[in-house]
UniProtKB/TrEMBL annotation:
One Pfam family hit: PAS_4
GO terms, biological process: cellular response to phosphate starvation
Parts of the chain that traverse the membrane: 12-32
EC number of the protein: 2.7.13.3
Lineage of the organism: Bacteria, Bacillati, Bacillota, Clostridia, Neomoorellales
Enzyme class: transferase
Protein name stated in the entry: histidine kinase
CDD domains hit by this protein: HAMP, HATPase, HisKA
Protein backbone atom coordinates (compact mmCIF):
# COMPACT_ATOMS: atom_id res chain seq x y z
CA UNK A 1 0.00 0.00 0.00
CA UNK A 2 2.78 2.42 0.94
CA UNK A 3 4.38 1.88 -2.46
CA UNK A 4 1.41 3.44 -4.25
CA UNK A 5 1.61 6.81 -5.96
CA UNK A 6 -1.06 8.17 -3.61
CA UNK A 7 1.05 7.49 -0.53
CA UNK A 8 4.19 8.71 -2.23
CA UNK A 9 2.47 11.98 -3.15
CA UNK A 10 1.02 12.28 0.35
CA UNK A 11 4.45 11.67 1.87
CA UNK A 12 5.97 14.25 -0.48
CA UNK A 13 3.36 16.84 0.42
CA UNK A 14 3.82 16.13 4.14
CA UNK A 15 7.58 16.41 3.81
CA UNK A 16 7.27 19.75 2.05
CA UNK A 17 4.72 20.90 4.63
CA UNK A 18 6.98 19.78 7.49
CA UNK A 19 9.98 21.55 6.01
CA UNK A 20 7.90 24.68 5.55
CA UNK A 21 6.63 24.55 9.14
CA UNK A 22 10.14 23.95 10.49
CA UNK A 23 11.57 26.83 8.49
CA UNK A 24 8.72 29.15 9.47
CA UNK A 25 8.98 28.07 13.10
CA UNK A 26 12.70 28.70 13.20
CA UNK A 27 12.23 31.98 11.41
CA UNK A 28 9.51 32.96 13.89
CA UNK A 29 10.61 31.59 17.25
CA UNK A 30 14.05 33.16 17.52
CA UNK A 31 13.04 36.73 16.54
CA UNK A 32 10.04 36.42 18.83
CA UNK A 33 12.24 35.20 21.65
CA UNK A 34 14.59 38.10 21.07
CA UNK A 35 11.66 40.46 20.87
CA UNK A 36 10.27 39.31 24.21
CA UNK A 37 13.70 39.47 25.84
CA UNK A 38 14.07 43.03 24.62
CA UNK A 39 10.54 43.74 25.78
CA UNK A 40 11.26 42.38 29.25
CA UNK A 41 14.48 44.34 29.50
CA UNK A 42 12.71 47.54 28.50
CA UNK A 43 9.97 46.80 30.97
CA UNK A 44 12.52 46.16 33.67
CA UNK A 45 14.36 49.35 32.70
CA UNK A 46 11.11 51.33 32.89
CA UNK A 47 10.34 49.87 36.27
CA UNK A 48 13.88 50.66 37.43
CA UNK A 49 13.44 54.25 36.28
CA UNK A 50 10.21 54.48 38.29
CA UNK A 51 11.98 53.12 41.36
CA UNK A 52 14.83 55.60 40.80
CA UNK A 53 12.24 58.40 40.72
CA UNK A 54 10.73 57.01 43.89
CA UNK A 55 14.14 57.19 45.57
CA UNK A 56 14.74 60.72 44.33
CA UNK A 57 11.37 61.81 45.66
CA UNK A 58 12.31 60.58 49.12
CA UNK A 59 14.09 63.31 51.10
CA UNK A 60 16.44 60.67 52.40
CA UNK A 61 16.93 56.94 52.53
CA UNK A 62 14.84 55.81 55.48
CA UNK A 63 12.35 53.13 56.57
CA UNK A 64 9.50 54.70 54.64
CA UNK A 65 11.30 53.81 51.46
CA UNK A 66 11.31 50.08 52.41
CA UNK A 67 7.56 50.16 52.83
CA UNK A 68 7.08 51.84 49.46
CA UNK A 69 9.40 49.28 47.82
CA UNK A 70 7.43 46.39 49.33
CA UNK A 71 4.12 47.87 48.19
CA UNK A 72 5.37 48.59 44.68
CA UNK A 73 6.98 45.19 44.28
CA UNK A 74 3.68 43.58 45.24
CA UNK A 75 1.88 45.63 42.59
CA UNK A 76 4.27 44.87 39.73
CA UNK A 77 5.23 41.31 40.84
CA UNK A 78 8.95 42.09 40.51
CA UNK A 79 11.85 42.12 42.92
CA UNK A 80 13.01 45.66 43.79
CA UNK A 81 16.32 46.44 45.40
CA UNK A 82 17.77 49.85 46.42
CA UNK A 83 21.51 50.06 47.07
CA UNK A 84 23.39 53.10 48.38
CA UNK A 85 26.53 54.49 46.80
CA UNK A 86 28.69 52.18 48.88
CA UNK A 87 26.93 49.01 47.75
CA UNK A 88 24.99 48.45 50.97
CA UNK A 89 21.44 47.23 50.44
CA UNK A 90 19.04 49.79 51.80
CA UNK A 91 15.77 48.26 50.67
CA UNK A 92 14.76 44.90 49.10
CA UNK A 93 11.33 43.44 48.41
CA UNK A 94 12.33 39.78 48.87
CA UNK A 95 14.82 39.84 51.77
CA UNK A 96 15.69 41.76 54.91
CA UNK A 97 18.38 44.30 53.85
CA UNK A 98 20.14 43.88 57.17
CA UNK A 99 20.84 40.27 56.36
CA UNK A 100 22.09 40.91 52.85
CA UNK A 101 25.76 41.28 52.02
CA UNK A 102 27.24 44.26 50.21
CA UNK A 103 26.26 44.32 46.50
CA UNK A 104 29.00 46.60 45.30
CA UNK A 105 30.62 43.82 43.28
CA UNK A 106 27.43 42.49 41.70
CA UNK A 107 27.89 42.93 37.90
CA UNK A 108 24.76 44.98 37.35
CA UNK A 109 25.40 47.10 40.52
CA UNK A 110 28.99 47.75 39.58
CA UNK A 111 27.92 48.94 36.11
CA UNK A 112 25.22 51.20 37.55
CA UNK A 113 27.59 52.73 40.17
CA UNK A 114 29.89 53.45 37.26
CA UNK A 115 27.10 55.49 35.68
CA UNK A 116 25.80 52.95 33.17
CA UNK A 117 22.80 50.68 32.90
CA UNK A 118 23.61 47.36 34.44
CA UNK A 119 22.16 44.14 33.01
CA UNK A 120 22.80 40.61 34.15
CA UNK A 121 21.26 37.15 34.24
CA UNK A 122 22.66 35.05 37.06
CA UNK A 123 21.94 32.91 40.07
CA UNK A 124 20.90 34.85 43.16
CA UNK A 125 22.40 33.54 46.37
CA UNK A 126 19.88 35.62 48.25
CA UNK A 127 16.75 34.05 46.72
CA UNK A 128 18.37 30.85 45.49
CA UNK A 129 16.90 31.48 42.05
CA UNK A 130 18.20 32.45 38.65
CA UNK A 131 17.16 36.07 38.03
CA UNK A 132 17.40 38.62 35.29
CA UNK A 133 18.55 42.03 36.59
CA UNK A 134 18.41 45.64 35.33
CA UNK A 135 20.10 48.34 37.49
CA UNK A 136 20.12 52.16 37.04
CA UNK A 137 22.20 54.77 38.88
CA UNK A 138 20.34 57.23 41.14
CA UNK A 139 21.93 60.67 40.86
CA UNK A 140 21.18 63.84 42.69
CA UNK A 141 22.83 67.09 41.70
CA UNK A 142 25.23 65.17 39.49
CA UNK A 143 26.32 62.79 42.20
CA UNK A 144 25.47 59.04 42.28
CA UNK A 145 23.78 58.47 45.60
CA UNK A 146 22.66 54.88 44.95
CA UNK A 147 21.27 52.25 42.54
CA UNK A 148 17.71 51.15 41.77
CA UNK A 149 17.52 47.54 40.64
CA UNK A 150 14.64 45.45 39.21
CA UNK A 151 14.79 41.66 38.92
CA UNK A 152 12.52 39.00 37.51
CA UNK A 153 12.93 35.23 37.85
CA UNK A 154 14.20 33.63 34.62
CA UNK A 155 11.62 30.88 35.19
CA UNK A 156 8.85 33.44 34.76
CA UNK A 157 10.32 34.50 31.42
CA UNK A 158 10.80 30.85 30.41
CA UNK A 159 7.20 30.09 31.41
CA UNK A 160 5.99 32.75 29.02
CA UNK A 161 8.21 31.32 26.29
CA UNK A 162 7.03 27.79 27.07
CA UNK A 163 3.43 28.95 26.79
CA UNK A 164 4.22 30.55 23.45
CA UNK A 165 5.94 27.34 22.31
CA UNK A 166 2.96 25.26 23.47
CA UNK A 167 0.55 27.44 21.54
CA UNK A 168 2.87 27.31 18.56
CA UNK A 169 3.19 23.52 18.87
CA UNK A 170 -0.59 23.09 18.93
CA UNK A 171 -0.83 25.35 15.93
CA UNK A 172 1.83 23.28 14.13
CA UNK A 173 0.01 20.03 15.04
CA UNK A 174 -3.28 21.43 13.79
CA UNK A 175 -1.56 22.62 10.63
CA UNK A 176 0.04 19.19 10.19
CA UNK A 177 -3.32 17.42 10.56
CA UNK A 178 -4.96 19.81 8.16
CA UNK A 179 -1.96 19.39 5.84
CA UNK A 180 -2.27 15.61 6.08
CA UNK A 181 -5.95 15.72 5.15
CA UNK A 182 -5.34 18.22 2.39
CA UNK A 183 -2.34 16.21 1.12
CA UNK A 184 -4.32 12.96 1.14
CA UNK A 185 -7.25 14.61 -0.58
CA UNK A 186 -5.02 16.30 -3.13
CA UNK A 187 -3.06 13.11 -3.81
CA UNK A 188 -6.33 11.19 -4.09
CA UNK A 189 -7.59 13.75 -6.57
CA UNK A 190 -4.40 13.34 -8.60
CA UNK A 191 -4.11 9.55 -8.31
CA UNK A 192 -7.77 8.57 -8.71
CA UNK A 193 -7.63 9.03 -12.50
CA UNK A 194 -4.38 7.06 -12.52
CA UNK A 195 -6.05 4.26 -10.55
CA UNK A 196 -9.01 4.31 -12.94
CA UNK A 197 -6.62 4.13 -15.89
CA UNK A 198 -4.81 1.24 -14.17
CA UNK A 199 -8.10 -0.63 -13.68
CA UNK A 200 -9.09 -0.06 -17.30
CA UNK A 201 -5.64 -1.18 -18.49
CA UNK A 202 -5.90 -4.30 -16.31
CA UNK A 203 -9.29 -5.21 -17.77
CA UNK A 204 -7.94 -4.61 -21.28
CA UNK A 205 -5.01 -6.91 -20.43
CA UNK A 206 -7.60 -9.57 -19.45
CA UNK A 207 -9.12 -9.27 -22.92
CA UNK A 208 -12.06 -6.97 -22.07
CA UNK A 209 -11.30 -4.58 -24.91
CA UNK A 210 -14.59 -2.67 -24.63
CA UNK A 211 -13.53 -1.08 -21.32
CA UNK A 212 -12.95 2.67 -21.62
CA UNK A 213 -11.56 5.47 -19.41
CA UNK A 214 -13.82 8.51 -18.90
CA UNK A 215 -11.63 11.62 -18.43
CA UNK A 216 -13.02 14.44 -16.25
CA UNK A 217 -10.22 16.94 -16.90
CA UNK A 218 -8.06 18.09 -19.77
CA UNK A 219 -4.67 17.49 -18.14
CA UNK A 220 -1.90 15.06 -19.05
CA UNK A 221 -3.66 12.18 -17.29
CA UNK A 222 -6.72 12.73 -19.47
CA UNK A 223 -4.47 12.60 -22.53
CA UNK A 224 -3.01 9.32 -21.24
CA UNK A 225 -6.52 7.94 -20.69
CA UNK A 226 -7.59 8.90 -24.21
CA UNK A 227 -4.45 7.25 -25.57
CA UNK A 228 -5.29 4.04 -23.69
CA UNK A 229 -8.85 4.19 -25.06
CA UNK A 230 -7.46 4.47 -28.58
CA UNK A 231 -5.04 1.63 -27.88
CA UNK A 232 -7.90 -0.55 -26.59
CA UNK A 233 -9.94 0.15 -29.70
CA UNK A 234 -6.99 -0.70 -31.95
CA UNK A 235 -6.22 -3.81 -29.89
CA UNK A 236 -9.83 -4.95 -30.10
CA UNK A 237 -9.72 -4.60 -33.86
CA UNK A 238 -6.40 -6.43 -34.12
CA UNK A 239 -7.48 -9.22 -31.77
CA UNK A 240 -10.77 -9.63 -33.64
CA UNK A 241 -8.84 -9.78 -36.89
CA UNK A 242 -6.45 -12.35 -35.43
CA UNK A 243 -9.42 -14.32 -34.08
CA UNK A 244 -11.06 -14.27 -37.52
CA UNK A 245 -7.84 -15.49 -39.11
CA UNK A 246 -7.47 -18.12 -36.39
CA UNK A 247 -11.05 -19.31 -36.92
CA UNK A 248 -10.52 -19.49 -40.66
CA UNK A 249 -7.26 -21.35 -40.18
CA UNK A 250 -8.92 -23.73 -37.71
CA UNK A 251 -11.81 -24.29 -40.14
CA UNK A 252 -9.36 -24.96 -42.97
CA UNK A 253 -7.26 -27.31 -40.85
CA UNK A 254 -10.23 -29.18 -39.39
CA UNK A 255 -11.81 -29.67 -42.82
CA UNK A 256 -8.65 -30.83 -44.53
CA UNK A 257 -8.56 -34.44 -45.59
CA UNK A 258 -4.85 -34.61 -44.88
CA UNK A 259 -3.46 -34.52 -41.38
CA UNK A 260 -1.52 -31.40 -40.39
CA UNK A 261 0.63 -30.83 -37.32
CA UNK A 262 2.86 -27.95 -36.25
CA UNK A 263 5.83 -28.74 -34.02
CA UNK A 264 8.23 -26.43 -32.21
CA UNK A 265 12.01 -26.57 -32.36
CA UNK A 266 12.04 -29.28 -29.68
CA UNK A 267 9.79 -31.58 -31.70
CA UNK A 268 6.78 -30.96 -29.44
CA UNK A 269 3.32 -30.78 -30.99
CA UNK A 270 1.77 -27.30 -30.80
CA UNK A 271 -1.08 -27.56 -33.36
CA UNK A 272 -2.85 -30.60 -34.78
CA UNK A 273 -6.00 -30.87 -36.88
CA UNK A 274 -8.80 -33.40 -36.55
CA UNK A 275 -7.71 -35.38 -39.60
CA UNK A 276 -4.26 -35.98 -38.11
CA UNK A 277 -5.74 -37.08 -34.78
CA UNK A 278 -8.08 -39.48 -36.54
CA UNK A 279 -5.75 -40.88 -39.19
CA UNK A 280 -2.79 -41.26 -36.83
CA UNK A 281 -5.15 -42.68 -34.15
CA UNK A 282 -3.71 -40.47 -31.42
CA UNK A 283 -4.87 -40.35 -27.81
CA UNK A 284 -5.32 -37.20 -25.73
CA UNK A 285 -3.53 -35.27 -24.39
CA UNK A 286 -1.54 -34.36 -27.51
CA UNK A 287 -0.54 -30.70 -27.39
CA UNK A 288 2.73 -29.94 -25.65
CA UNK A 289 3.96 -33.54 -25.85
CA UNK A 290 6.91 -34.77 -27.92
CA UNK A 291 6.07 -36.34 -31.28
CA UNK A 292 7.96 -39.51 -30.37
CA UNK A 293 5.82 -39.85 -27.25
CA UNK A 294 2.55 -39.32 -29.14
CA UNK A 295 3.05 -40.72 -32.67
CA UNK A 296 5.76 -43.22 -31.64
CA UNK A 297 7.64 -43.32 -34.95
CA UNK A 298 11.43 -43.03 -34.90
CA UNK A 299 11.68 -42.44 -38.63
CA UNK A 300 9.42 -39.40 -38.35
CA UNK A 301 11.39 -38.06 -35.38
CA UNK A 302 14.71 -38.51 -37.22
CA UNK A 303 13.35 -36.71 -40.29
CA UNK A 304 12.07 -33.84 -38.11
CA UNK A 305 15.52 -33.44 -36.57
CA UNK A 306 17.13 -33.46 -40.01
CA UNK A 307 14.75 -30.84 -41.42
CA UNK A 308 15.19 -28.60 -38.36
CA UNK A 309 18.95 -28.84 -38.80
CA UNK A 310 19.13 -28.41 -42.58
CA UNK A 311 16.09 -26.22 -43.18
CA UNK A 312 15.32 -28.28 -46.31
CA UNK A 313 11.91 -29.69 -47.26
CA UNK A 314 11.59 -33.46 -46.84
CA UNK A 315 9.11 -36.02 -48.22
CA UNK A 316 9.06 -39.65 -47.24
CA UNK A 317 6.78 -42.62 -46.61
CA UNK A 318 6.04 -43.70 -43.07
CA UNK A 319 4.45 -46.92 -41.83
CA UNK A 320 2.32 -47.05 -38.69
CA UNK A 321 1.06 -50.15 -36.95
CA UNK A 322 -1.89 -49.08 -34.80
CA UNK A 323 -4.04 -52.18 -34.95
CA UNK A 324 -3.68 -52.33 -38.75
CA UNK A 325 -0.87 -51.18 -40.98
CA UNK A 326 -1.17 -47.69 -42.41
CA UNK A 327 1.07 -45.98 -44.93
CA UNK A 328 1.51 -42.18 -44.96
CA UNK A 329 3.28 -39.86 -47.35
CA UNK A 330 4.75 -37.19 -45.08
CA UNK A 331 5.89 -33.71 -46.12
CA UNK A 332 8.04 -31.70 -43.69
CA UNK A 333 8.90 -28.00 -44.02
CA UNK A 334 10.39 -25.49 -41.60
CA UNK A 335 8.52 -22.45 -40.29
CA UNK A 336 10.80 -19.42 -40.25
CA UNK A 337 10.38 -16.16 -38.35
CA UNK A 338 12.86 -13.28 -38.63
CA UNK A 339 15.50 -15.52 -40.23
CA UNK A 340 15.12 -17.97 -37.38
CA UNK A 341 13.66 -21.47 -37.52
CA UNK A 342 10.56 -21.27 -35.34
CA UNK A 343 9.26 -24.78 -35.86
CA UNK A 344 8.18 -27.29 -38.45
CA UNK A 345 4.93 -28.17 -40.24
CA UNK A 346 4.15 -31.79 -41.06
CA UNK A 347 1.48 -32.86 -43.56
CA UNK A 348 0.32 -36.50 -43.51
CA UNK A 349 -1.36 -38.02 -46.59
CA UNK A 350 -2.91 -41.43 -45.94
CA UNK A 351 -1.86 -43.48 -48.97
CA UNK A 352 -2.74 -46.82 -47.41
CA UNK A 353 -5.57 -47.42 -49.87
CA UNK A 354 -3.40 -46.25 -52.77
CA UNK A 355 -0.68 -48.70 -51.83
CA UNK A 356 -3.30 -51.43 -51.37
CA UNK A 357 -4.72 -50.66 -54.80
CA UNK A 358 -1.24 -50.78 -56.29
CA UNK A 359 -0.66 -54.12 -54.62
CA UNK A 360 -4.08 -55.33 -55.78
CA UNK A 361 -3.23 -54.22 -59.32
CA UNK A 362 0.03 -56.13 -59.16
CA UNK A 363 -1.74 -59.15 -57.71
CA UNK A 364 -4.48 -58.83 -60.32
CA UNK A 365 -2.00 -58.78 -63.19
CA UNK A 366 -0.14 -61.71 -61.69
CA UNK A 367 -3.37 -63.64 -61.04
CA UNK A 368 -4.81 -62.93 -64.48
CA UNK A 369 -1.55 -63.99 -66.07
CA UNK A 370 -1.54 -67.17 -64.01
CA UNK A 371 -5.23 -67.92 -64.58
CA UNK A 372 -4.83 -67.43 -68.34
CA UNK A 373 -1.52 -69.24 -68.59
CA UNK A 374 -2.73 -72.42 -66.88
CA UNK A 375 -5.46 -73.38 -69.39
CA UNK A 376 -3.44 -72.04 -72.31
CA UNK A 377 -0.47 -74.17 -71.28
CA UNK A 378 -2.75 -77.19 -71.02
CA UNK A 379 -4.32 -76.53 -74.44
CA UNK A 380 -0.92 -75.84 -76.01
CA UNK A 381 0.47 -79.07 -74.59
CA UNK A 382 -2.36 -81.19 -75.95
CA UNK A 383 -2.21 -79.49 -79.35
CA UNK A 384 1.53 -80.16 -79.62
CA UNK A 385 1.00 -83.76 -78.56
CA UNK A 386 -1.72 -84.24 -81.16
CA UNK A 387 0.46 -82.67 -83.83
CA UNK A 388 3.40 -84.87 -82.95
CA UNK A 389 1.31 -88.06 -82.62
CA UNK A 390 -0.21 -88.24 -86.10
CA UNK A 391 -1.24 -91.84 -85.61
CA UNK A 392 -2.98 -91.19 -82.26
CA UNK A 393 -5.98 -93.42 -81.75
CA UNK A 394 -9.46 -91.91 -81.88
CA UNK A 395 -10.24 -92.56 -78.22
CA UNK A 396 -7.15 -90.74 -76.99
CA UNK A 397 -7.71 -87.89 -79.45
CA UNK A 398 -11.31 -87.47 -78.20
CA UNK A 399 -10.05 -87.42 -74.61
CA UNK A 400 -7.55 -84.70 -75.46
CA UNK A 401 -10.20 -82.72 -77.30
CA UNK A 402 -12.61 -82.92 -74.36
CA UNK A 403 -9.87 -81.62 -72.04
CA UNK A 404 -9.08 -78.84 -74.49
CA UNK A 405 -12.78 -77.97 -74.72
CA UNK A 406 -13.01 -77.84 -70.92
CA UNK A 407 -9.98 -75.55 -70.67
CA UNK A 408 -11.37 -73.38 -73.46
CA UNK A 409 -14.68 -73.12 -71.57
CA UNK A 410 -12.73 -72.21 -68.47
CA UNK A 411 -10.93 -69.48 -70.42
CA UNK A 412 -14.23 -68.21 -71.76
CA UNK A 413 -15.77 -68.12 -68.28
CA UNK A 414 -12.73 -66.33 -66.89
CA UNK A 415 -12.80 -63.71 -69.63
CA UNK A 416 -16.55 -63.22 -69.22
CA UNK A 417 -16.15 -62.73 -65.48
CA UNK A 418 -13.32 -60.26 -66.05
CA UNK A 419 -15.42 -58.30 -68.52
CA UNK A 420 -18.41 -58.39 -66.17
CA UNK A 421 -16.30 -57.12 -63.28
CA UNK A 422 -14.85 -54.39 -65.47
CA UNK A 423 -18.32 -53.30 -66.59
CA UNK A 424 -19.57 -53.19 -62.99
CA UNK A 425 -16.58 -51.18 -61.77
CA UNK A 426 -16.89 -48.70 -64.62
CA UNK A 427 -20.59 -48.21 -63.89
CA UNK A 428 -21.72 -49.33 -67.34
CA UNK A 429 -24.16 -51.97 -66.05
CA UNK A 430 -26.95 -52.23 -63.47
CA UNK A 431 -27.46 -48.45 -63.46
CA UNK A 432 -31.13 -48.55 -64.39
CA UNK A 433 -32.72 -49.55 -61.10
CA UNK A 434 -36.44 -49.88 -60.48
CA UNK A 435 -38.63 -51.27 -57.76
CA UNK A 436 -38.36 -55.02 -58.18
CA UNK A 437 -39.70 -58.04 -56.34
CA UNK A 438 -36.56 -59.66 -54.95
CA UNK A 439 -38.60 -62.69 -53.92
CA UNK A 440 -39.57 -63.39 -57.53
CA UNK A 441 -35.94 -63.08 -58.66
CA UNK A 442 -34.87 -65.56 -55.96
CA UNK A 443 -37.58 -68.02 -57.02
CA UNK A 444 -36.43 -67.95 -60.65
CA UNK A 445 -32.73 -68.30 -59.79
CA UNK A 446 -33.42 -71.10 -57.30
CA UNK A 447 -35.40 -73.07 -59.86
CA UNK A 448 -32.62 -72.48 -62.39
CA UNK A 449 -29.95 -73.80 -59.98
CA UNK A 450 -32.03 -76.64 -58.52
CA UNK A 451 -31.03 -79.28 -61.12
CA UNK A 452 -27.31 -78.72 -60.35
CA UNK A 453 -27.98 -79.04 -56.61
CA UNK A 454 -30.03 -82.21 -57.02
CA UNK A 455 -27.41 -83.64 -59.38
CA UNK A 456 -24.88 -83.29 -56.53
CA UNK A 457 -27.31 -84.69 -53.97
CA UNK A 458 -28.01 -81.40 -52.22
CA UNK A 459 -31.25 -80.12 -50.75
CA UNK A 460 -32.07 -76.58 -52.00
CA UNK A 461 -34.80 -74.90 -49.94
CA UNK A 462 -36.44 -71.50 -50.40
CA UNK A 463 -38.38 -69.65 -47.69
CA UNK A 464 -39.66 -66.14 -48.45
CA UNK A 465 -42.08 -63.75 -46.77
CA UNK A 466 -44.18 -61.18 -48.60
CA UNK A 467 -43.07 -57.63 -49.35
CA UNK A 468 -39.49 -58.20 -50.48
CA UNK A 469 -39.54 -55.20 -52.80
CA UNK A 470 -36.23 -53.37 -53.28
CA UNK A 471 -34.80 -50.73 -55.56
CA UNK A 472 -32.42 -52.42 -57.97
CA UNK A 473 -31.51 -54.10 -61.24
CA UNK A 474 -33.14 -57.44 -61.99
CA UNK A 475 -30.13 -58.79 -63.85
CA UNK A 476 -27.68 -57.54 -61.22
CA UNK A 477 -29.63 -59.01 -58.29
CA UNK A 478 -30.04 -62.26 -60.21
CA UNK A 479 -26.27 -62.39 -60.79
CA UNK A 480 -25.70 -62.00 -57.02
CA UNK A 481 -28.04 -64.90 -56.26
CA UNK A 482 -26.51 -67.07 -59.01
CA UNK A 483 -22.94 -66.52 -57.80
CA UNK A 484 -23.82 -67.20 -54.15
CA UNK A 485 -25.79 -70.36 -54.98
CA UNK A 486 -23.03 -71.49 -57.36
CA UNK A 487 -20.47 -71.20 -54.56
CA UNK A 488 -22.77 -72.98 -52.10
CA UNK A 489 -23.29 -75.88 -54.51
CA UNK A 490 -19.56 -76.17 -55.26
CA UNK A 491 -18.42 -76.21 -51.63
CA UNK A 492 -21.23 -78.22 -49.98
CA UNK A 493 -20.60 -81.98 -49.84
CA UNK A 494 -23.23 -84.42 -51.11
CA UNK A 495 -26.08 -84.90 -48.67
CA UNK A 496 -25.84 -81.32 -47.46
CA UNK A 497 -28.44 -78.58 -47.69
CA UNK A 498 -28.70 -75.03 -48.98
CA UNK A 499 -31.37 -72.73 -47.54
CA UNK A 500 -32.39 -69.35 -48.94
CA UNK A 501 -34.50 -67.31 -46.53
CA UNK A 502 -35.93 -63.84 -47.17
CA UNK A 503 -37.77 -61.59 -44.71
CA UNK A 504 -38.21 -57.93 -43.72
CA UNK A 505 -37.25 -56.21 -40.49
CA UNK A 506 -37.27 -52.53 -39.43
CA UNK A 507 -37.69 -51.32 -43.00
CA UNK A 508 -34.93 -53.55 -44.39
CA UNK A 509 -35.04 -56.62 -46.61
CA UNK A 510 -32.79 -59.43 -45.37
CA UNK A 511 -31.78 -62.39 -47.58
CA UNK A 512 -29.75 -65.25 -46.04
CA UNK A 513 -27.92 -67.90 -48.11
CA UNK A 514 -27.11 -70.70 -45.66
CA UNK A 515 -25.20 -73.88 -46.55
CA UNK A 516 -23.73 -76.83 -44.70
CA UNK A 517 -20.50 -76.72 -46.68
CA UNK A 518 -16.85 -76.87 -45.71
CA UNK A 519 -16.89 -73.37 -44.24
CA UNK A 520 -14.28 -70.61 -44.34
CA UNK A 521 -11.52 -70.09 -41.74
CA UNK A 522 -11.94 -66.86 -39.75
CA UNK A 523 -8.64 -65.39 -40.97
CA UNK A 524 -9.76 -65.89 -44.59
CA UNK A 525 -13.22 -64.31 -44.30
CA UNK A 526 -12.07 -60.71 -44.87
CA UNK A 527 -10.27 -61.63 -48.11
CA UNK A 528 -12.84 -63.78 -49.91
CA UNK A 529 -14.18 -60.76 -51.81
CA UNK A 530 -10.77 -60.01 -53.33
CA UNK A 531 -10.23 -60.83 -57.00
CA UNK A 532 -8.85 -64.31 -57.64
CA UNK A 533 -8.72 -65.06 -53.93
CA UNK A 534 -9.51 -68.69 -53.18
CA UNK A 535 -9.66 -70.35 -49.80
CA UNK A 536 -8.75 -73.72 -51.38
CA UNK A 537 -7.04 -72.87 -54.67
CA UNK A 538 -6.61 -76.42 -55.96
CA UNK A 539 -10.20 -77.39 -55.20
CA UNK A 540 -11.55 -74.15 -56.64
CA UNK A 541 -9.82 -74.68 -59.99
CA UNK A 542 -10.93 -78.31 -60.01
CA UNK A 543 -14.53 -77.13 -59.53
CA UNK A 544 -14.17 -74.62 -62.34
CA UNK A 545 -14.11 -71.47 -60.25
CA UNK A 546 -12.45 -68.29 -61.53
CA UNK A 547 -11.97 -66.59 -58.15
CA UNK A 548 -14.05 -63.59 -59.33
CA UNK A 549 -17.56 -64.63 -58.31
CA UNK A 550 -17.60 -63.03 -54.84
CA UNK A 551 -15.75 -59.94 -56.12
CA UNK A 552 -18.60 -59.47 -58.60
CA UNK A 553 -21.15 -59.96 -55.79
CA UNK A 554 -19.44 -57.31 -53.66
CA UNK A 555 -19.40 -54.72 -56.44
CA UNK A 556 -23.04 -55.33 -57.38
CA UNK A 557 -24.07 -54.96 -53.72
CA UNK A 558 -22.12 -51.70 -53.45
CA UNK A 559 -23.80 -50.52 -56.65
CA UNK A 560 -27.17 -51.11 -54.93
CA UNK A 561 -26.09 -49.36 -51.68
CA UNK A 562 -26.63 -52.70 -49.97
CA UNK A 563 -24.49 -54.60 -47.49
CA UNK A 564 -23.21 -58.17 -47.39
CA UNK A 565 -22.11 -60.01 -44.27
CA UNK A 566 -20.38 -63.39 -43.90
CA UNK A 567 -20.60 -65.75 -40.95
CA UNK A 568 -18.77 -69.03 -41.36
CA UNK A 569 -17.59 -71.94 -39.24
CA UNK A 570 -15.19 -74.47 -40.78
CA UNK A 571 -16.79 -77.91 -41.03
CA UNK A 572 -20.25 -76.50 -40.19
CA UNK A 573 -21.18 -74.14 -42.99
CA UNK A 574 -21.44 -70.56 -44.16
CA UNK A 575 -24.13 -67.86 -44.13
CA UNK A 576 -24.09 -64.92 -46.55
CA UNK A 577 -26.53 -62.24 -45.34
CA UNK A 578 -27.67 -59.54 -47.76
CA UNK A 579 -29.28 -56.37 -46.43
CA UNK A 580 -31.27 -54.00 -48.70
CA UNK A 581 -33.30 -50.89 -48.06
CA UNK A 582 -36.96 -51.75 -48.51
CA UNK A 583 -38.53 -49.94 -51.47
Amino acid sequence: MFKSIRWKLTATYLLLLSLTIVVLTLAFIFPMQQYYLTFFERNLTSQAQLVRQLVLNSPELNADLQQQVDKWAEDIALRITVVDAGGAVFADSDEDPAKMENHRHRPEIATALAGGTGRATRFSTTTNRRLKYVALPVTRQGEIIGVSRIAIPVSDVSAIFDQIKEILGLAILAAALVGLLVSFKLSATLTQPVEEITQVAGKIAEGRFRERFSPRTDDEIAVLGKTINSMAEILEGKVNEIERHRSRLAAVLDNMVSGVTVLNGKGEIEIINLAAQKELELEQPILGRHNLEVIRNHKLNDQIKQVLHSGQVSSFEMNLLHGRKKVFLVHLAVISAAEHTDGIIAVFHDITQLRQLEQMRKDFVANVSHELKTPLTSISGFVETMLDETEMDVKTREKFLRIMAKETSRLDTLIEDLLELSRIESGRVYNEQDTVDLGEILREVTEEMRPRAEEKGLSLNLSLTEGLDVQGSVSGLAQVAINLLDNAIKYTPAGGSIDVHGHTTFGDVIIDFRDTGVGIPLEEVERIFERFYRVDKARSRKLGGTGLGLAIVKHIMENHQARIKVDSTPGVGTVFSLKFNKA
